Amino acid sequence: MASIDPRALRDAFGCFMTGVTVVTTLDADGKPLGFTANSFSSVSLDPPLLLVSIANSSGNLGAFVSGKGFAVNILGEGQKEVSGTFARPSADRFAQTYWRHGPIGSPLIAGVSAWFDCDLAQAIPAGDHTILIGRIGAFEATPTAGLGYYRGAYVTPAATAAQLPAGPDVVISAILETEGTVLLVDDGRGGLSVPMARVGREGVQSALAGLIRTTGLQAEAGSIYAVYEDPVQGTQHIALRCPTKPGQPAKGAFVELSAQGVADVTDPALRQMLQRLAEESRMGNYGIYFGTHEQGRVQRTLEGQAG
Question: Which residues form the Flavin reductase like domain (predicted)?
């Protein structure tokens, strides 16, 4: 069998992204001890078991193997310094670390993502390390994002994701038409608008259905009429024509679909869109607008070309 380069093997192990933990216990005199480890793994739910491994060269090996138990503290993204403290040789690693005794007795570090306080179930020699299997007696998970480790460097997935540029908010608009009129509602700025809603995780179809329900009217999701961006507001707008049965809306009122009828619409882009719809309805020649809130192009639809 060919010999294995320990450094290369360690680098290969480092390709597996892990969390970062600090494993703690008390020595025979009640002094807190701990070390940084990324060898943490869940083992069993019934009974509740986990494992970590400690190097046989560690000066703390005897305390962990002969002790009553240990705790695994999963570090949060802001605890790189804590990880470094427990990874380096130090006379008292707990001197600058706030901690408390856990329900089972082992030291629990403040501000972690989660902790598990365990009784020692078994210590298994395994090469140059010893595997510590703990029976979980108490645990707690917090909303704090966990600190990661990959190829010899710390990673902070949640913090990194929060700094990435986000895409625009998607806003759905329902143009509810019936008998030459269109529904307008109060836009909250002293003017009028068509019913609008931001699209969430549920998607466009669900958002549109919910928006129509709020009007109290019977309407169908019709064809897309305009798709445009508003770079200033960071929004992407999708407007759909929704054929509607006559009725009394729960909010707003139907107005004549004409340049005069939509004159009180506050948003210039929306007002121009409705004015275009009024003209196209009169001519029976429809199109779909693509662009921004300021400029774009109208693509004629088959419906519009048929006439």
Answer: 13-156
